[in-house]
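hey can u run this one w/ calcium ion bound, need the C-alpha cells asap thx
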Amino acid sequence: MSKSEMLDDLPTNTSANEHFQSVVERAVNRRGFLKTGLGLSAAVFLSGSLSACNSDNDDDDAPDSETPEPRPLIGFTGIPTSTADDIVVAAGYTATAFAPWGTPLFSSGPGSTWAGGSEGAAEQMRQVGDNHDGIHFFPLVEGNSEEGLLVMNHEYTTTSGTATYAWLFGTPNTTITTADQANKAIAAHGVSVIHIRKNAGKWEIVLDSQYNRRITAATPMLLTGPAAGDDLLKTTVDPTGTSVFGTINNCGNGFTPWGTYLTCEENFNNYFGTTAGSDSRNAAQKRYGLSAGATSYGWELFHDRFDYVKEPNESNRFGWIVEIDPFDRNSTPKKRTALGRFKHENAAYRIGADGTVAVYMGDDQANDYVYKFVSNGKYKAGDHRNNANLLDSGKLYVAKFNAGAVAGDFMGDGEWILLDKASNAALAGFANQAEVLINARLAADAVGATKMDRPEWVAVHPATGEVYVTMTNNSGRTTTDEANPRAQNRYGQIVRWREAGDDVAATTFAWDIFVLAGNPIKYTDRSELKSGSANVTAENTFNSPDGLGFDKDGRLWIQTDGNYSNTGEYEGQGNNQMLCADPATKEIRRFFVGPKECEVTGIAFTPDSKTLFINIQHPGEDGNSHWPDGGSAIPRSATIIITKDDGGVIGS
Ligand code: FEO
Ligand code: CA
Ligand code: CA
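ok here u go:
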C-alpha cells in the first residue's frame, strides 16, 4: 500500500488527524523530544486527557456556570529511588505483602502449613507457586471490590546448583537430583487461582474455597485452534496433537471481557534439552533457543518429554497463550494456537465497534516482534456460548514500524503484515498454515517485520484505544531504526500506536515513542539519547520498562525489571520500581520501589480502583534479601496489596 493510500485510510475527525502533523511540526519534534518541556508530540499525538473530563460534577443536566480547574490525573508526589531491602510507596499509601510463595490454599492435608521450603511436590501442588508475575482480579459478583478471585502466574524456579541463590528447597543452590525435586519445581510453576475477600478492612485468603486451584506444568490442557492436531504437535503420549500436560514460564498475562484469564508462556525453550550428548536441534528449535545439551532445570532427567531428542515435538506444544476459566476449578485450560507461538510476554485486548476482538502481543527476545490477532467472530456481551472460543479463529499479523515522513522524529507509520500462507508468497516455504502459527517467528522473519528491542507488556488506553508496548532493552543492538533508535540500548523505551480509522482490524497505524528511558544523572548532556526523552528526569529515572497497564481513568502504570546495581550506567536508579505516567502530558512519577534484587511486575485493580495488586518477583536473586519475612528468612516472591490511606482511587 502506498503512503498516500494509507493516509486516505485515516480517520477524518479533527482530533485524530492532529497526530499526522505537518512536516514542519515533525521536524522540530526531535529537539522537543529530547530537551524542552515534555515534547510537542505529546499534545498532538493524543487527542485529549481524561483528567479534563470532570468539569460538570453536579447532578443536573445543565453545564456548570463556572468550569472548575481540571484535576491532574496523577495526584501523588513522586518518591525518591531506594536501595533498601524493603518496599517503599508514595506518601498517603500503604503497601503490604500478601500470598508469598508457599502460602497454603487449604486448611488441612498436604501443604496446609508453610514449612520454610522443605516441602515436596505434593505440598507444593496445594500452595501458592514461585516467582509471581502477571496477575488479575476477577470479582465474584460484577463490580464487587470486596471479594473475588486473585489469579496469578508463577513464571519459573531457580533450582540448579549453577543458578545464583535458588531457594526452592529452602536452602540455597540445591541441584535437582530426585524425581520429587523435579516434580516440586513443576508444581511451583503455572498459575494460582486464589479466592480472597476483605474482612474488617483486610484482605485474606478464603482457605478451602471451591475456587482455589493450582494449575501447574503438569495440569492436563488442550491445544485448540488452527494448529491443533498438526503433525508438528503429535507426541508419543498424544498421537492426536491436541492434549498436553502443563504450562510453563508463565510470564505476563491478559484477561478477556468474557471473564477468562490468559496466561502467556514465555521462555519455554529453557525447559527442553537432552542427555544425548550432542546438538541435534533443527533450525526452528535453534530459532526458539532450545538448549543444545542439558538444561539448568533438569526435568529431562526424569521426564522424557523434556528431552528434545526423545520427544522432538513436545516443545512445539509450549510458547502459546493459554485461556483459563478461573470460575470453574474443573475447567480444562486451552492453548489458543491462532495467537501464534513465540515467547509470549502478555496479551492486551481491545474490542472493536462491531465486536471484533484484537489481541496485542509482544515476543520478548532481542530483535523479535510485536503481533496482533484479529478475531473472525464478534464479541457479544453476556453470550458465553458465542464468546467461549473467539480466540480460536482469526488473523495473525506482525508489525512493521516505518520511519514515516520525517526521519529521526521518533514517530512514523506502520503496517500489520498478515501471516497467512495462502496470501503471502513469502510464506511459500511453510508446509501449511499450522506451521506458520507454530513457527511464527520464522514466518515473521520471512515477511520482514521490524526487529524490536525486546517487546514486553502491551497495554490499551481505555478511552483512546491507543496501544503502548514496553521495549525493555537491547544492549546487543548494532543497527538502529526509528522505533529502536539506540545502539547498545541499555535503558529501553515505550512505543505507542493508534490504529488507522481507530479500527482494531486496521492494517496500518501511526506510532511514536512515548518515553525513551535514560539516565540524565549519568548523562547530563540532554542532546544525547542516553539521557532519555524530555519526560525522563533525575527524579524519575529508570531502566528496563517491562510490566505495563492502564487503570480505568487512563493512568499508565510502568514497572521495571532491569539493572538494580545503582552504579555506572544505572547510577541513581536504585531498585526496580513502579511509575505512573499521564498519557496526555507524558509526565512520569515514581510511585513504588521494590526490595533488593527483585523485579516489579503484574498489575491488577479491584473494580473501584481502590485496591492495587502487584507482584514482587525473585527478591534477593543474588543472595542479598530476606524480604518479606525479614530476619534471616529466605526471600520469597509475593504479591503486594496497595491502598490509599484516605480510601481513594489509587494514583488520584
Ligand atoms: Fe518474563 Fe519478558 O518477562
Ligand atoms: Ca519519523
Ligand atoms: Ca516481564
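Confidence is low (pLDDT under 50) at residues 1-28, 36-64. anyway lmk if its weird
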